[in-house]
């Protein structure tokens, strides 16, 4: 009984981790902060592409580390790096300094990415309540985005003191990650004895997910494209608002409102999934994102800013839907690695597309950059979902009778 209580506490602790990670006081003004240090939008996108490259290098090995040595230890190590990264931002004042801070944050977030979802699912598995996985993933994401909404308002107020003040506050708040990750309990279903970490095992898992298992491959690719599409808008939104004359004082409020909506959408993600199914839900998200980019590219005015809600709808619904789709198809001891592959894919796509969009923005126009984003993300996501659907069919064209069992990686 005591162990069940401690396992249930995992869900609360994971929510705390999500809240603290998402309580980003700096994000509503970070592009302005970068510009105050002499950086262009292309520089901003390049810095974030470097951050993506760091995650590409660390993401999958960190997932395997989680699978072999435990979720709890992995989250603890990641927390240390995240705290160090935000602390370094308080003394950085140039591209080089920001690079070091992003390096530390990239490693830390990589160790958290996928591991938290895997620990949540393994906890539910031991408790015998895996049917709640989408609901719980949505609740975790919702809590994080409500936290980000509150942080957006506070960050804007703190920026009124100075642009560096939100970074000092961020470094202090993030310390909570350390005791929260230490208090977690490792689910029994995950413990694997006698396994030694091996890059061969990592590559074998990636090969199984991306080559042998066609359905899982296209789920991961579709999720990666969707994640990159909304991440790109995160970095374009602030310069867009500056271009259309939105007062900087409103940035925090707008950021808070959008992330509050992500929380609402995440809470209802399971409803959409249950009603329409995974693929139809993702098609809806892809259309919302493509239309959003196209509308913003066509009209450069604050009046069309409400279409940005579509991107945050995709963020709120997409993450729990894709996480659940992967979780039910992958065995416990390989789950964190495969979840990390999806995050890696998102970063690889952004690493390629982000600097290109930034260059187009600086050298052609923001409207063209937005059109390019609409075309690239809209077409690629719909193609990925179509191939996902094809992969569910057998050689005679009929739907597989039990996708969860037949496509499960063990």
TrEMBL record:
Entry's Gene Ontology cellular component terms: membrane
Keyword Transmembrane listed: yes
Major facilitator superfamily (MFS) profile domain mapped to chain residues: 1-392
Protein name: Major facilitator superfamily (MFS) profile domain-containing protein
Membrane-protein topology: Multi-pass membrane protein
GO MF: transmembrane transporter activity
Organism of this sequence: Candidatus Kapaibacterium thiocyanatum
Transmembrane segments: 12-34, 46-65, 86-111, 167-185, 218-237, 249-269, 281-305, 311-332, 344-360, 366-388
Subcellular compartments: Membrane
Cited InterPro entries: MFS, MFS_DHA3_Transporter, MFS_dom, MFS_trans_sf, Sugar_transporter_CS
Keywords: Membrane, Transmembrane, Transmembrane helix
Pfam families reported in the protein's UniProt record: MFS_1
């Amino acid at each position: 009984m005591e162990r069940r209580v401690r396992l249930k506490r995992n869900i609360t602790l994971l929510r705390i981790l999500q809240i603290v990670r998402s309580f980003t006081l700096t994000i509503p003004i970070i592009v302005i902060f970068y510009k105050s240090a002499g950086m262009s939008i292309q520089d901003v996108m390049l810095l974030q592409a470097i951050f993506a490259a760091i995650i590409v290098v660390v993401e999958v090995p960190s997932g395997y580390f989680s699978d072999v040595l435990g979720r709890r230890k992995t989250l603890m190590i990641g927390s240390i790096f995240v705290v160090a990264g935000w602390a370094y931002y308080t003394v950085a004042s140039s591209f080089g300094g920001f690079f070091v801070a992003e390096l530390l944050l990239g490693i830390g977030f990589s160790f958290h990415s996928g591991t938290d979802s895997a620990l949540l699912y393994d906890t539910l598995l031991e408790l015998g309540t895996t049917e709640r996985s989408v609901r719980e993933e949505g609740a975790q994401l919702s809590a994080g985005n409500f936290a980000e909404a509150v942080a957006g308002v506070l960050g804007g107020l703190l920026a009124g003191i100075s642009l560096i003040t939100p970074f000092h506050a961020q470094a202090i708040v993030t310390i909570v990650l350390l005791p929260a990750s230490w208090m977690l309990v490792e689910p029994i279903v995950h413990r694997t004895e006698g396994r030694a970490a091996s890059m061969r095992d990592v590559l074998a898992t990636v090969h199984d997910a991306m080559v042998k298992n066609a359905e899982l491959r296209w789920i991961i690719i579709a999720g990666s494209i969707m994640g990159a599409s909304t991440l790109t808008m995160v970095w374009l939104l602030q310069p867009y608002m500056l271009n259309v004359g939105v007062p900087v004082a409103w940035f925090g409020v707008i950021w808070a409102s959008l992330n509050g909506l992500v929380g609402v959408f995440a809470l209802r993600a399971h409803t959409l999934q249950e009603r329409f199914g995974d693929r139809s839900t993702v098609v809806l998200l892809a259309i919302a994102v493509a239309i959003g980019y196209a509308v913003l590219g066509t009209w450069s005015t604050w009046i069309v800013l409400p279409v940005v809600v579509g991107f945050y709808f995709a963020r709120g619904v997409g993450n729990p839907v894709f996480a659940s789709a992967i979780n039910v198809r992958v065995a416990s001891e390989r789950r964190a690695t495969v979840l990390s592959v999806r995050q890696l894919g998102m970063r690889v796509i952004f690493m390629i597309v982000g600097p290109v969009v930034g260059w187009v923005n600086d050298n052609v126009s923001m409207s063209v950059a937005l059109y390019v984003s609409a075309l690239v993300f809209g077409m690629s996501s719909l193609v990925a979902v179509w191939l996902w659907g094809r992969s569910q069919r057998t050689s005679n064209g009929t739907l597989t009778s039990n996708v969860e069992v037949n496509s499960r990686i063990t």
